[in-house]
Amino acid sequence: MSSSNPTDPPKSSNLAVPVLVRRLPHFEGLTLPAYATEGAAGMDVLAAEDVTLEPGARHAVATGLALAIPSGFEIQVRPRSGLALKHGISVPNTPGTIDSDYRGELKVILINLGERAFEVRRGDRIAQLVLAPVVRASWLKVDELDATMRGEGGFGSTGTREVMPFDTPG
Asked: pTM of whole model > 0.90?
C-alpha cells in the first residue's frame, strides 16, 4: 500500500481534451502540434511556408491546419522564448486567441523586433499553442465602484521597485 506525502505537489491531471484538426494540402509532410516535454504547457506548432521577415515586418504564417476547438475552450497562440530572446521574433498580439467557432486556417502572426532579417522555413517551430478554458463575463451596471487602495492608478502606478507585501488573511 502506498502512502502519499502531504508535502508532495499535487499530480497534474492527464485530462486530454480532443480537438478536431483538418490537415490542409500544404500541411503535407509536417507533424501535428506536440508537447516537447511531459511538463510543457504549450504545443509547438510548425510553419507550413517559407517567409523572410525583415526587421519591423509582420506576417501571418500559414500552419496548414484548421481546427474545431470544443465549446468552452480557446487556443492561445504564444511566442517561443528562444526565438524572442535570440532573434527578436514574437507574436505581436500575445496571446493570440483562436475562438472555438473559427474554422479557417490557423495562422500565426509573427513580428521581427530584431535588427536583422529572419528566415522562417517550412517545418520550423514558430509558436506555442495552449488550450485554455474560457469563462464568460456578464456586465452588471452600477453607479459607483468599491474603493481600493490602488484606486485609478494604472500603467506603472505600482512602480518598479520592491513592493511591500500586503496583509493576507491567514
From this structure: no
What the chain holds in terms of domains, given with CATH numbers, is: 23-133 (2.70.40.10)
Coil vs helix vs strand at 146: coil
CB atoms within 10 A of CB 150: 9
Q: Residue 36: CB partners within 8 Å, gap ≥ 6?
A: 44
pLDDT at 9: 61
> Residue 136: is its pLDDT beyond 60?
yes
DSSP string for residues in 19-67: -EEEE-GGGTT----EESSTT-SSEEEE-SS-EEE-TT-EEEEEEEEEE
Closest CA to 87 of 61, 128, 52, 132: 52
Alpha carbons 96 and 40: distance in angstroms, whole number: 18
